[in-house]
Amino acid sequence: MAKYWLMKSEPSVFSIDDLARDEKTHWDGVRNYQARNFMQSMKLKDKVLFYHSNADETGVAGIAEVCREAYPDFSAWDPNDSHFDPKTKKDAPTWMMVDIAFVEKFPRIVTLHEMKDAPQLEGMTVIQKGSRLSVQSVSEEHFKAVVKMAKG
DNA sequence: GCCAACGTTGGC
DNA sequence: GCCAACGTTGGC
Questions:
Q1: Would you tell me how many other CB atoms lie within 10 Å of the CB of residue A12?
Q2: Using the CB atom, is residue A134 less than 7 Å from strand C?
Q3: How far apart are CA A91 and CA A77, in angstroms?
Q4: Is the predicted pLDDT of residue A1 greater than 80, yes or no?
Q5: DSSP helix/strand/coil, A115
């Protein structure tokens, strides 16, 4: 049974349009244990709400799916990478990533504001105050409700 | 640009 | 193990 997730990206860095162009990407650079743990429990074909943060319109921009399960995030070993972690060793990787593939771009952004106003999304992590986690788990009900909001 | 939230670090 | 200082995230 597929599970559902939400992953945040700043569209000025990597947007849903970038994912559509590239078709898939590796989700490197996550340096938070809780977010990493969520990625480690992702399975092939799990669905992901692609969320735009720090944008003109913050909110869910489309859907992606997991196309490769967790494996070591090699950017942690690259001194030239902005997410370099000098403490992690190659024989004991601390940080993991998954690959995700483009599924669809919503006809419109489902904004954070309207998600906060939607009673059917009550309890969803992303609408909690101070929710900074970049990878979150989403219930099937909430996932379907967001898709319905996007398509009307 | 401001600032609240919150994770991490390091002194003790 | 506590907690203050610090850095980052991300909404506004």
A1: 10
A2: yes
A3: 11
A4: no
A5: helix
Q: Does any strand B atom come closer than 7 Å to the Cβ of A32?
A: yes
Checking DSSP bridges between strand A135-138 and strand A47-52, what pairing results, if any?
unpaired
Q: Which CATH class is domain A4-138?
A: alpha beta
B2 C1' – A113 CA distance, angstroms? Answer: 20
**DSSP-based three-state secondary structure for A36:** helix
Residue ranges of domains in chain A: 4-138
pTM summary value: 0.94
CB A37 within 8 A of CB A87: no
Pairing of strands A47-52, A4-9: parallel
Of the listed ranges A34-38, A50-54, A108-112, A129-133, the one predicted with least confidence = A129-133
The gap between A54 CA and B1 C1' (Å) is 13
Report residue A3 as tokens: 């599970």
Compute how many other C-beta atoms are within 10 angstroms of the C-beta atom of residue A42. 24
A105 contacts A17 by C-beta, under 8 angstroms:
yes
